[in-house]
Amino acid sequence: MQNIGNAVIQGIVEGLTEFLPVSSTGHLILTGKLLGFAGDKADTFEIIIQLGAILAVAVIYWRRILNLFGLARTGSSIESQPNTSSRLNLIHVILACLPAMVLGLLLHSFIKSYLFSPYTVLVGLVLGGVFMIFGQKRQPAVQAEGMDQLTYRQAAIIGLYQCLALWPGFSRSGATIAGGLLTGTSYRAATNFSFLIAIPMMFAASGYELLKSYSTLTSSDFGFFAVGFIVAFAVAFLAVLTFLKLLERFKLVPFAYYRFALAIVFFVYLTINGGA
């Protein structure tokens, strides 16, 4: 049986980083390296705790999700302006998710074989940080203050930017928020849309991976995995609500600087330890 302390640590890391523009995949790979937690069991555990984070966002955006299916008439309770005649619909979500889903499926073997290493994650952290600074500095005049002002064209372009996150360490939320800014979307709209489209994206990716690896689980893993799932859910719930407030005040650049600092620290660590 795995160490419960590792489950708590990884659950916290997943919950804190999954929806922040700092790359949860990168943090989990690097944290796993520090904890000595790697292999098939670790990969399956990461999928399970990611599902916990997905559930947290689904709970936060439950009204908006129902609205997409015509089952509710108001937006998410955390959005700045409630909407009674929402223009955002499933077509926006499909356009934003389809490119990364298709490309991810086509390149899945290549990505898993060649890009899931500490050094490639460090490259992703740096490149993603540069892109986030670029998105903030080059944001044009805002055309969509809220998600309901997003056009199909903006949703499709955000979907293309999301493909950048297929490189581990780049960050899905960083790519979509910065990409949203470049399309003329406000910070709040870009962030809310990024979180919303994360639900089908992450559910599809996690479901696919879980189907391939569920056979590695045994009954003795239940407690360990349950702890990680619950911790990831609780921390992600708080992290999303907190990040929406932080973003309005600090924007993306401080998160980019954090990514650069993290890359430097781990590069030094890996160099000293010979990449081990």
UniProtKB/TrEMBL annotation:
It is a multi-pass membrane protein. Keywords: Antibiotic resistance, Cell membrane, Cell shape, Cell wall biogenesis/degradation, Hydrolase, Membrane, Peptidoglycan synthesis, Transmembrane, Transmembrane helix. Its main location: membrane. It is an enzyme of class 3 (hydrolase). The keyword Cell membrane applies. It catalyses: di-trans,octa-cis-undecaprenyl diphosphate + H2O = di-trans,octa-cis-undecaprenyl phosphate + phosphate + H(+). This is Undecaprenyl-diphosphatase. The gene is bacA.
